[in-house]
C-alpha cells in the first residue's frame, strides 16, 4: 500500500512539473531555403507568433542570404537583399523576438556543395550533403559565411552552427589519413572545435 502511495505521489508530482513547465526561450525556426516569405508577410507573421508565446527566432537562411565576395554564388537569385535583412531584424526587434542565425557548417550544406564553385569541398564526390573538414578551402568557406551573416546580425548574441546529420564523415583519402590513430568521432570533434568554435 505504501509503495502504491509513493508511486502515485511521484506520478502526481511529475505530471504537475511537466504540465506547468514553460521554457524561458521559445524559438520559432524559420527555414527559408528556396522560398523566402515577403516582408509584407513577415510584418503579419511576427506579431502572430508573438501572440502565441514565441520569444525568438532561429533563422536558417541557406541560399536566401545576400552573400558577397568570394561566396556570392551561394545566394539564390531570389535571396533577400541587405536592406530586407535589416527590415526583418527591425521587425523582430519591434516584436521583442530575439534572433539566432543558423549557419550550416558541416552537414546539410547541399545549397553550397551542389555548386561547381564549391563541389571540390564535398566529403564524398557523389554527395553534396557534407563538407570535408580536411580540404583546403572548407574552413575559409565557413569563416566567410559566419563573418558575413554575423556582420548583418550585430545584435545577435548567439549563433547556431548546425552540425547535425553529417552523413558522410571520414570517408575521403585525406580524412582517412588523419584518422589513422583515432576513432571516427575524433574528426567530427576536431572540426567543431578548431574549425568552427574559433
Ligand atoms: Zn574528408
UniProtKB/TrEMBL annotation:
Key word Metal-binding present: no
Gene Ontology terms, MF aspect: beta-N-acetylhexosaminidase activity
Any one of the GO BP annotations: carbohydrate metabolic process
Catalytic activity annotation: Hydrolysis of terminal non-reducing N-acetyl-D-hexosamine residues in N-acetyl-beta-D-hexosaminides
Glycoside hydrolase family 20 catalytic domain sequence ranges: 76-183
EC number: 3.2.1.52
Record keyword ATP-binding present: no
Listed InterPro entries: GH (IPR017853), Glyco_hydro_20_cat (IPR015883), HEXDC-like (IPR038901)
Keywords: Hydrolase
PANTHER family in the cross-refs: BCDNA.GH04120 (PTHR21040)
Family: Belongs to the glycosyl hydrolase 20 family.
Entry protein name: beta-N-acetylhexosaminidase
Organism in which the protein naturally occurs: Strigamia maritima (European centipede)
Amino acid at each position: 500500500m505504501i509503495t502504491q502511495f509513493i508511486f502515485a505521489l511521484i506520478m502526481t508530482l511529475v505530471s504537475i512539473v511537466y504540465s506547468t513547465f514553460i521554457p524561458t526561450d521559445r524559438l520559432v525556426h524559420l527555414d527559408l531555403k528556396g522560398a523566402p516569405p515577403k516582408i509584407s508577410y513577415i510584418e503579419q507573421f511576427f506579431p502572430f507568433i508573438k501572440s502565441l508565446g514565441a520569444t525568438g527566432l532561429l533563422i536558417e537562411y541557406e541560399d536566401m542570404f545576400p552573400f558577397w565576395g568570394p561566396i556570392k554564388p551561394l545566394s539564390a537569385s531570389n535571396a533577400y537583399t541587405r536592406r530586407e535583412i535589416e527590415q526583418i531584424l527591425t521587425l523582430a526587434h519591434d516584436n521583442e523576438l530575439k534572433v539566432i542565425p543558423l549557419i550550416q557548417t558541416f552537414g546539410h550544406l547541399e545549397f553550397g556543395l551542389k555548386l561547381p564553385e564549391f563541389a571540390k569541398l564535398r566529403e564524398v564526390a557523389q554527395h553534396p550533403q557534407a563538407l570535408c573538414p580536411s580540404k583546403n578551402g572548407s574552413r575559409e568557406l565557413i569563416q566567410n559565411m559566419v563573418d558575413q551573416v554575423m556582420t548583418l546580425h550585430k545584435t545577435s548574441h548567439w549563433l547556431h552552427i548546425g552540425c547535425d546529420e553529417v552523413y558522410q564523415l571520414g570517408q575521403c583519402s585525406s580524412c582517412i589519413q588523419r584518422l589513422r590513430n583515432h576513432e571516427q568521432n575524433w574528426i567530427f570533434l576536431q572540426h567543431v572545435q578548431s574549425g568552427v568554435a574559433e
